Amino acid sequence: MSRADKPLIRIEDIEVSYGNSPVVSGLSTAIEAGTLVGLIGPNGAGKTTLMLSAAGQFRPVRGHVYFEGSDVYEHNRAFKKNVGYVHEDPFFYPYLTAEEFLRFVAEVKSVPEDDVEGQIHSLLKLVDLWEERAKVTSALSMGMRKKLAIAAAMAGKPRILFLDEALNGIDIESSYRIKRSLRDFAAAGGAVILSTHTLEVVEKLCDRYLLLKKGRIIADLKADEFTGQGGVGEGGSLERHVIQVLSDPDDVDLR
């Protein structure tokens, strides 16, 4: 298999536990370049745990995660240079300005010195924070903090973006611009994994949906299955289909 044929991320039979309680168990999937994947499911389904494990931040007790064929935990530092991550509740150094925070992130990500200012400028413009660049992060609203976290995740030109409820609380205009940028990011060969409870966002933005329940993928669906005649979404929406699958008492794996 050539390098071009390999998925960006391949997850093989991972189990992730907190203490003695498995949160994700026997889970396998692959994320291809050029895709926007919506990660959906009820609270406690394991979405954040799966993202943290796939992003190299929480090592599984069993199984493997590969980035272009290399184990992400054996080559963790090199892998993380290819990753941008937005946590549901992002952390900031409170006395740094928005601009200073992005400069700090650029340094951590080893962005070439002659590219730092250009990236900071374009990212602040992208998320509509250019006018707030001199404000300390503690003075930013929650929506602005989410936008700054997205800008920080995109610094250093990563290959993969993990977004955990990243678009919550962001104004309509900024959200539209960011979603368009995520489509461009994927079209250029990157991959986006978006976890959210807002199915409308997933349905409009993503081309693939992974539905989790009790730490397992119970449905792996393509967006085009919900369009046209004969699709699984015919006569209904993604929301209706998800509710139907989640309420299935047999809990069968529908991949």
Q: How are helices and strands ordered from N to C?
A: EEEHEEHEHHHEHEHEEH
* Number of helices, where a helix is a run of at least 4 consecutive DSSP H or I residues: 8
Total domains, how many?
2
Strand order of the largest sheet: 6-7-8-3-9-10
Whole-number mean pLDDT: 89
At CATH's second level, what is the architecture of the largest domain? Answer: 3-Layer(aba) Sandwich
Uncertain stretches? none
Rg of Cα set = 18 Å
What would the principal axes of the Cα set say about the shape? globular
Strand content: 15-25%
Largest sheet: 6 strands, mixed
Fraction in helix: 25-40%
Determine the CATH superfamily of the largest domain.
Answer: P-loop containing nucleotide triphosphate hydrolases
SSE blueprint and pairings:
Layout: E1 9-18, E2 21-31, E3 36-40, H1 47-54, E4 62-67, E5 70-71, H2 76-80, E6 83-86, H3 98-108, H4 113-126, H5 142-154, E7 160-164, H6 172-187, E8 191-195, H7 199-205, E9 208-213, E10 216-222, H8 238-246
Parallel strand pairs: 3-8, 3-9, 6-7, 7-8
Antiparallel strand pairs: 1-2, 1-4, 4-5, 9-10
Helix pairs in contact: 3-4, 4-5
